[in-house]
Amino acid sequence: MAMGLVIGPAIGGYLAQPTEKYPMLFPANSFFGRFPYFLPCLCISVFCFAILLSCIWLPETLHTHKPDKKEDQENQPIIEHLAADSEESVEKNISSATTKDLFKNWPLMSSIILYCIVCFDDMAYSEIFPLWAESDRSYGGLSLSSEDVGQVLAITGASILLYQTFIYPHKVKVLGPINASRVTSIFSMLLLLTFPFMTHLSRPWLLIVLNISSVLKANFAVTVVTSSVILQNNSVPQGQRGIANGLANTLMSFSKAVAPAGAGIVFSWAQKHQYSFIPGDQMVFLFLGTVAIIEFIWTFKPFLAVPDQFRST
C-alpha cells in the first residue's frame, strides 16, 4: 500500500495539466489542453486494466475444496451419510452463532469503532489537504501547484513504507498498541492545529515544514490503524478472524465513504467564512483536530475494552 501512496500522488502531481508543465510535448490546443486531467486518469486506468488481466491468471491459494456430494453420497454408507449431514448442520449453527457473538464481543467492536474513527479522520484529511494546499493564500491556503502537492504526498508515502518497516515494530514493542495509539492521537491533534499558520511561511521553509508535518500526520494515522487491527485480531479466536476482519472493513468502508463528503462540506463552508471570528481555514483543521480528540478519548475505558494480553498497558 505504501508503494501505491508513493506512485499514485506522483502520477497525479506530475501528469495533471500537462500542457502547462510540458508545452513542448502537449500543445495548449491539443486534446490534453481541453482535458487537463485526462493523462493521469489514463495512466491509472491502464494500470488497473493490467491488474485485471493479471488476476485472470492468478493461481488459487486455497486448495481445500469440498468433495462432490453426489459421488460421496453414492459411495457412503447410510450411517456415515447421516453423521456427515449432522456435522454439516452443526457447522452451520456454529457459524451463525459465532457471527452473532461478534456483535456482543465489546473488545472487538470497540477496537473496530476506533478503527473507523481514525479512518474517518485520515480520509477527511486526505480530502482537505490537497484542496487547502492549492487554494489561494487569501483563502487561508498555500497557493501550491499540483506538482508541489504531488511531491509532498509522494514523500509522505515513502515515509510510511520506512516507518512501517523499521520504526513501528519497535514502537509498539515498547509502548504497546494502546499506549502507542494514545500518544500519536494527542500529537496528531496538536499537529493539525498548526496547519493554518503555515500560510504565513514562504519558500523554501514552507515546503520543508509542510513535508515534515505531512509525514508526521500520515504516520500518526498509520500507528493507530495498525494498532487497532492488532487489537481486533487479539479480541477473537483464530477461527473468527476472517469474519471479524470482514466486519471491520465493511464498517471502515462506510466511514471512508462519509468522510470526503463531510470534509468537503466543511471546506466549502470555510472558504466562504474566511474573515469570520474564527477564520475558515482554522475551522477546517479544528474539525479534524476534534475528530483526533474523539479518537484519543476512545482509547480509554469504558470505551475501549482491552483484550486480556494487553491489560497491563
Biggest sheet architecture: none
Structural category is: mainly alpha
Q: Could you estimate the helical fraction of the residues in percent?
A: over 70%
What value does the average pLDDT take? 84
Give the overall shape: globular
CATH T-level fold name of the largest domain = Growth Hormone, Chain: A
Distinct helical segment count = 11
What report would you give on this structure?
Pfam families: MFS_1. Keywords: Membrane, Transmembrane, Transmembrane helix, Transport. InterPro entries: MFS (IPR011701), MFS_trans_sf (IPR036259). The chain crosses the membrane at residues 37-59, 180-199, 205-231, 251-271, 283-304. With 313 residues, the protein is an all-alpha fold. It folds into two domains: 2-55, no CATH class; 105-145 and 154-310, Growth Hormone, Chain: A (Up-down Bundle). It is built from eleven helices and no strands. It has helices at residues 2-15, 18-21, 31-34, 38-56, 69-75, 78-104, 106-134, 146-192, 205-233, 241-272, 280-297. α7 runs antiparallel to α11 (280-297).
Question: What's the topology here?
Answer:
Blueprint: H1 2-15, H2 18-21, H3 31-34, H4 38-56, H5 69-75, H6 78-104, H7 106-134, H8 146-192, H9 205-233, H10 241-272, H11 280-297
Helix pairs in contact: 1-4, 1-8, 7-9, 7-10, 7-11, 8-9, 8-11, 10-11
